[in-house]
Amino acid sequence: MAEAAAVGDRLRVLLVDDEPLARAKLRRLLAEDPGVEIVGEAASSAEARELVRAHLPDLLFLDIQMPDEDGFALLRSLPAGSVPAVVFVTAFDQHALRAFEVHALDYLLKPFDRERLGVALERAREALARRPNPIDEQLRMVLGELRGEQPYLGRFVIRSVGRILFVAAADVDWIEASGNYVRLHAGKESHLLRETMSSLETRLDPRVFARIHRSTIVNVERIRELHHIFHGDYSVLLKDGTRLTLSRGYREQFERLVAGAPELLQAR
After folding, report:
1. Domain carrying residue 110
2. How many CB atoms lie within 10 A of CB 174?
3. Are 174 and 217 a contacting pair, CB within 8 Å?
4. Is 249 helix (H, G, I), strand (E, B) or coil?
5. In terms of domains, do 165 and 135 share one?
6. Which residues are bridge partners to 13 per DSSP?
């Protein structure tokens, strides 16, 4: 593990996992680091909620799947002023992706070893050192998304061989359908994401992204101009020179979106 912090800077940690053996393993590994103080353990979200309120830990090792409610529901239920930094723990890789989507400091995929735990602790220490208050912007984003205050995607999580890539929604120029996948175009790069166009459309901010064709969604800020072509369709020219098609079936919806930018429709 990374070099331990001074005793006065010890991380106050709460373990939340419904499996006794999992908690025992984590407790044993953390005991090797004198820079960590375990302030409590919980086997359920209900127990964890009371312990968070009582001890105000710096860091929460949080299992995602638990019998009463999952770890995401626990975070959603906590008062903002008592939410510690979070490292999610999961046996399921799909939960790891959601953990990244809600901006967790890190996640541990079971089974993990002391080296991987050491990385998580180091990230937690670095993050806590950067903020005087345990509730920073990252955790505000977590709670906002979990509570439905930020219903639209702020970034995409792209799985690739040996890595997980983050792409900000604002950096995406346009999106095209590719079977049961979509391809995100961001500058000179493109990224394949396993999701259908219809599903993705519901998670995008409609003030920013517009469906212009059954196989195309565009970031309206990237549109330079429109050109009428035939039968009510338009050619959509993006600022980078890309040409797309606005089909007649999506024209009315698109016009409502760009009502505040009538210059886009000057070619009527």
Report:
1. 7-146
2. 23
3. yes
4. helix
5. no
6. 38, 59
